[in-house]
Design a protein that fits this description.
Blueprint lengths: L1 E6 L8 E4 L4 E8 L5 E9 L5 E10 L4 E10 L5 E10 L4 E10 L7 E10 L5 E10 L5 E10 L2 H9 L4 H17 L4
Parallel strand pairs: 1-3, 2-4, 3-5, 4-6, 5-7, 6-8, 7-9, 8-10, 9-11
Length: about 190
């Protein structure tokens, strides 16, 4: 299928994608600052050897609400999926990620990895991630994980000791955090 980039608030993000035998999709979803979003994305890997490389990033600094639910179903053997989501949440914004990787009976040789990482940049910001695996086949490699944290004060101190003003150091850390996703959209 190819390489697709979707900007929330500008582009219509698909709700259901089906990949047949041998098809692959590299998809990036960006939720820019000032945009609220509630979306369910379902991807069915229906043919042997189908592959998905899915990434997303959001930046919330005010009162935005971002809720993204991603369901990836491995319905055939030999399929692979890689998911990486990152969000920066500030102000009194809320960001929620619900992810499910489903491996159907008989979908042997599945490889699926899902990660969601959030960076909180204000005390009133809220981020929650709920990655899940539901596996009904043997001989699979699957993983999931999530982190939520704050800017590293030691890194900020180091940058400030090198003459970088604190505001600039914070911006640089946020850009570096989101870079793996944003660089995909270039």
């Amino acid at each position: 299928m190819g390489n697709e980039v979707y900007i929330a608030g500008r582009d219509g993000i698909p709700s259901l994608i089906r990949l047949e035998a041998g098809e692959s999709l590299r998809m990036t979803v960006i939720v820019p600052e000032g945009v609220s979003l509630e979306h369910v994305l379902e991807v069915d890997l229906d043919g042997s050897g189908a592959s998905l490389d899915l990434a997303g990033a959001w930046r919330c600094s005010g009162t935005e609400r971002v809720k993204l639910q991603v369901v990836v179903r491995h319905n055939a053997p030999g399929c692979s999926s890689e998911q990486l989501f990152k969000g920066v949440v500030g102000g009194s914004a809320r960001a929620e990620f619900d992810g499910l990787v489903y491996v159907a009976p008989g979908a042997m040789k599945t490889e699926a990895h899902q990660q969601c990482h959030s960076l909180l940049v204000s005390p009133d910001a809220f981020a929650e991630a709920r990655p899940q695996l539901e596996i009904y086949a043997d001989d699979v490699q699957c993983s999931h994980g999530a982190t939520t944290g704050y800017l590293n004060p030691e890194e900020l101190f180091y940058m400030r000791s090198r003459g970088i003003p604190e505001d600039e150091a914070r911006k640089m850390q946020v850009e570096a955090f989101l870079a793996p996703i944003l660089n995909r959209a270039l």
